[in-house]
Amino acid sequence: MSDQQDRIYATAHDQVARFSFDDTVVRVFPDMIRRSVPGYPTIIDMIGVLAARYAQPDTVLYDLGCSLGAATTAMAALTRDRACPLIAVDNSEAMIRQAGTLLEEAGLRERVSLQLGDVSTMAFEPCSMAVLNFTLQFIEPARRDALIRRLAEATVPGGILVLSEKITFADAAENQLQTDLHHAFKRNNGYSDLEISQKRSALENVLIAETLDVHRERLLKAGYRHIHVWFRCFNFMSLMAVR
């Protein structure tokens, strides 16, 4: 099952292991992401809305770093009338396996090509929409520019990239404030200070956040014409880059 409560860091660990999207995380992922990322359900719903507006016939829709396929499902649900194949990719076998089960239950499995792979090295087909929903932050920084450039080159005119990320701030006081507010959000959702601290240790050097300016510069340099911030809550943000 993938709807259990996240208790991974509820007891003290002698040594906090590096975070990975393994079977343990998959089992609690819906609860973890809902309680950890402000506005996550809204982001997923609006990805579907954006797909309904921007999906073009005979082009691919990508969900890159698809986890359990939430964004894939949202896109598929609102583009039933388009000839747009969906390709969902993740480098976690556990995630792909469970995503397949959930898509089957939703009646969408036949429309979606699920692929186990590294999005930072894959080749892309012509697409009208690609989604990196809290994915780029887990990719080695040295590989990010090339990935975004290849995505831009594959995106047809008028197509979009949706990029959701945890961000950092150049101003230290602003960064601390937004971090504190995020932690307050997690406490309000039932996480203890121990859980917050141990999760943060597990993610150190795994999730590497960047500033909004760095993201904007990368997207523009890759060839996207317009960059829009369409969602923000504390230190979480989603951008829409138009080709």
TrEMBL record:
<comment type="subunit">
    <text>Homodimer.</text>
</comment>
<dbReference type="Pfam" id="PF13649">
    <property type="entry name" value="Methyltransf_25"/>
</dbReference>
<dbReference type="GO" id="GO:0002098">
    <property type="term" value="P:tRNA wobble uridine modification"/>
</dbReference>
<dbReference type="GO" id="GO:0016743">
    <property type="term" value="F:carboxyl- or carbamoyltransferase activity"/>
</dbReference>
<dbReference type="GO" id="GO:0008168">
    <property type="term" value="F:methyltransferase activity"/>
</dbReference>
<dbReference type="InterPro" id="IPR041698">
    <property type="entry name" value="Methyltransf_25"/>
</dbReference>
<dbReference type="InterPro" id="IPR005271">
    <property type="entry name" value="CmoA"/>
</dbReference>
<dbReference type="GO" id="GO:0032259">
    <property type="term" value="P:methylation"/>
</dbReference>
<dbReference type="GO" id="GO:1904047">
    <property type="term" value="F:S-adenosyl-L-methionine binding"/>
</dbReference>
<feature type="binding site">
    <location>
        <position position="133"/>
    </location>
    <ligand>
        <name>S-adenosyl-L-methionine</name>
    </ligand>
</feature>
<comment type="similarity">
    <text>Belongs to the class I-like SAM-binding methyltransferase superfamily. Cx-SAM synthase family.</text>
</comment>
<dbReference type="InterPro" id="IPR029063">
    <property type="entry name" value="SAM-dependent_MTases_sf"/>
</dbReference>
<feature type="binding site">
    <location>
        <begin position="65"/>
        <end position="67"/>
    </location>
    <ligand>
        <name>S-adenosyl-L-methionine</name>
    </ligand>
</feature>
<feature type="binding site">
    <location>
        <begin position="90"/>
        <end position="91"/>
    </location>
    <ligand>
        <name>S-adenosyl-L-methionine</name>
    </ligand>
</feature>
<keyword id="KW-0489">Methyltransferase</keyword>
<feature type="binding site">
    <location>
        <position position="200"/>
    </location>
    <ligand>
        <name>S-adenosyl-L-methionine</name>
    </ligand>
</feature>
<keyword id="KW-0808">Transferase</keyword>
<protein>
    <recommendedName>
        <fullName>Carboxy-S-adenosyl-L-methionine synthase</fullName>
        <ecNumber>2.1.3.-</ecNumber>
    </recommendedName>
</protein>
<keyword id="KW-0949">S-adenosyl-L-methionine</keyword>
<comment type="function">
    <text>Catalyzes the conversion of S-adenosyl-L-methionine (SAM) to carboxy-S-adenosyl-L-methionine (Cx-SAM).</text>
</comment>
<feature type="domain" description="Methyltransferase">
    <location>
        <begin position="63"/>
        <end position="159"/>
    </location>
</feature>
<feature type="binding site">
    <location>
        <begin position="118"/>
        <end position="119"/>
    </location>
    <ligand>
        <name>S-adenosyl-L-methionine</name>
    </ligand>
</feature>
<feature type="binding site">
    <location>
        <position position="40"/>
    </location>
    <ligand>
        <name>S-adenosyl-L-methionine</name>
    </ligand>
</feature>
